[in-house]
Design brief:
Blueprint (H helix, E strand, L loop, with lengths): L1 E5 L8 H19 L9 H8 L5 E5 L3 H13 L8 H10 L1 E5 L4 E3 L7 E7 L2 E5 L8 E6 L4 E2 L1 H6 L6 E4 L3 E7 H25 L8 H10 L1 E5 L4 E3 L7 E7 L2 E7 L2 E8 L4 E2 L1 H6 L6 E4 L3 E7 H7 L4 H7 L4 H4 L2
This protein binds ligand 1OR.
């Protein structure tokens, strides 16, 4: 049974601005996804699908067990990382459990999309046809805790890829209306905020823009003052950092003396060694000015940084003269 409750309404006068923003986004994503721009998107269409009028909160009845599993999966799915407790509760209420058999199509490229999925159990393949007439290419396998199907909802474009269950699978689906009102603004804002910065980070510059956007979803931010220790040598390491503002140095303490061994500027990264080598922090990282860092926890690092793993490993040699005994 679905119960409905009026929650909020938003300012419709800014809708045209939103449309423009979205259309730009749409062009960008379609260029990235190698698709012709859909000319039918207009304020009307946008309004029809995405208009933020009164929101009818949706409550899909489900078992305690399902609610527990949704909470767990949502804490892993990057798309929801910008939500507060109240917003999370609304999204959990609206989610619906969907079961698929191996071989079932969950999403077909080119279709209109009205839900986003979070994987709870099983694996799903992602395929894409890049040029009409060419065979589809296998892009990735979705695992529990990952989400897909967000592009159609975020940018009001047709499905950019096909998702097919590789094994029997259970997913939680979230409807477009709840997504638009609760998740979309925060998620889109976060992507916009970090997209440009991440595209300039040397380490990530050859990464697929779609994958870089997922890093944006997962980032957390922290501020430090001059002389603060961001990392302490010898501690266990669970985070990987990019410098968004300011300068840092790495220091190593040996025989009671602390020596500067490396310096970092905006766009540089640090903290990868402990995560790759499963060893304690090999050096201190000290802020040399006010510093803003964005960081990934170790789980996100492992899931998202895979495509640049080789570069990271190659770059590890920059520390060799300090880490080798
Ligand atoms: P959607 O709503 O378009 C299909 O439905 C979903 O496949 C899409 O959202 C994403 O969640 C997911 N390009 C486009 N969509 C992708 C891609 C992708 N990977 C997963 N999806 N890639 C870029 C190809 C140029 C793959 C990058 C590795």
């Amino acid at each position: 049974m679905i119960q409905k409750k009026v929650l909020s309404s938003s300012d419709e006068s800014s809708e045209d601005e939103h449309v423009e923003e979205l259309q730009d986004k749409q062009k960008l994503i379609q260029a990235k996804a190698n698709k012709p721009t859909r000319t039918s998107v207009s304020a009307e269409v946008y309004g029809q699908f995405n208009k933020k009028g009164q929101y009818q909160a949706k409550k899909v009845n489900k078992s305690e067990d399902a609610i527990k599993r949704i909470k767990q999966r949502m804490s892993q799915a990057f798309m929801f990382s910008a939500l507060d407790e109240h917003e999370l509760a609304i999204v959990i209420d609206a989610m619906e459990e969907k079961k698929f058999k191996a071989g079932d199509f969950v999403i077909k490229q080119g279709d209109d999309g009205d839900v986003l999925y979070v994987v709870d159990q099983g694996q799903l393949d992602c395929f894409k046809v890049f040029k009409k007439g060419e065979p589809e290419k296998h892009l990735k396998v979705y695992q529990p805790g990952e989400s897909f199907g967000e592009l159609a909802l975020l940018y009001n474009v047709p499905r950019a890829a096909t998702i097919k269950a590789k094994t029997d699978a259970i997913c939680f689906s979230l409807d477009r209306e709840t997504f638009n009102h609760i998740v979309k603004d925060a998620a889109a804002k976060k992507r916009e905020k970090y997209e440009e910065f991440l595209s300039k980070v040397e380490l990530l510059k050859d990464m697929d823009p779609y994958e870089r956007l997922q890093i944006a979803d997962a980032l957390k931010v922290e501020k430090f003052n001059k002389k603060d220790y961001i990392i302490r040598q010898g501690e266990q390491g669970n985070t990987f950092y990019f410098i968004q503002k300011g300068d840092c140095i790495a220091t190593k303490t040996e025989n009671g003396t602390e020596k500067e061994v490396y310096s970092y500027k905006v766009g540089d990264y640090f903290g990868e060694l402990a995560l790759i080598k499963h060893e304690p922090r090999a050096a201190n990282i000290v802020a040399q000015s006010e510093v803003i860092v964005v960081y990934l926890d170790s789980d996100s690092f492992r899931r998202l940084i895979g495509p640049v793993d080789e570069i990271l490993k190659r770059n590890m040699s920059r520390y060799e003269k300090y880490v080798k005994k």
